[in-house]
Amino acid sequence: MTSFVPENAVVWFEIPVTDMARAKTFYGAVLQNELTDQNEGPNPMSVFKAAGQTSVSGHIYPGKPAADGAGNTIHLAVAAPLEEAMERVTANGGKVLSRVISIPAGRFAYCLDPDGNSIGLFTT
């Protein structure tokens, strides 16, 4: 069997949301990273900004989220301090589910967006 080892295990992510405007406001405020509308594809979407064209990113789109916390967890980069990003989660209609967790690569916390999508906020 041939082994395939990509440069990035994740190449794109999609987060389904029920209200695009609310989700753009939530993610823009929490991540302090304004999303950019792109409507060239089959669905409207708003893309998370990343440093370069080869950087891994993703988008939100009108869809049906999994039940609260039942879907995959996407870990999203936030600027330090992580605790301030956690405060922005609750201030913008989401829920913080965990305390700050430290691992060798950095620090993160589990949260839910206003639609119940499971997200992690991560900082180095």
Q: What would your notes on this structure say?
A:
With 124 residues, the protein is α+β, with helices and mostly antiparallel strands. It has one domain: 2,3-Dihydroxybiphenyl 1,2-Dioxygenase, domain 1. 18% of the residues lie in helices and 32% in strands. The protein has helices at residues 20-31, 82-91; strands spanning 12-17, 36-38, 45-47, 57-62, 74-77, 95-96, 101-103, 106-112, 118-123. Strands 5, 6, 7, 8 and 9 form a five-stranded mixed beta sheet that branches. The chain has a four-stranded mixed beta sheet with strand order 1-4-3-2. A hairpin with a 2-residue loop joins strand 7 (101-103) and strand 8 (106-112). The mean pLDDT is 95.
Secondary-structure element order, N to C: EHEEEEHEEEE
The CATH class is identified as Alpha Beta
Q: Strand portion, in percent? A: 25-35%
Largest sheet: 5 strands, mixed
Number of helices: 2
CATH fold label: 2,3-Dihydroxybiphenyl 1,2-Dioxygenase, domain 1
How far do the termini sit from each other?
Answer: 36 Å
Task: Note poorly predicted spans.
Answer: none
Mean pLDDT: 95
Calculate Rg over CA atoms: 15 Å
Question: What is the CATH superfamily label?
Answer: 2,3-Dihydroxybiphenyl 1,2-Dioxygenase, domain 1
Q: So, CATH architecture?
A: Roll
What's the number of extended β-strand segments?
9
Total discrete domains = 1
- Structural class, please? alpha+beta
Give the overall shape. globular
The helicity comes to 10-25%
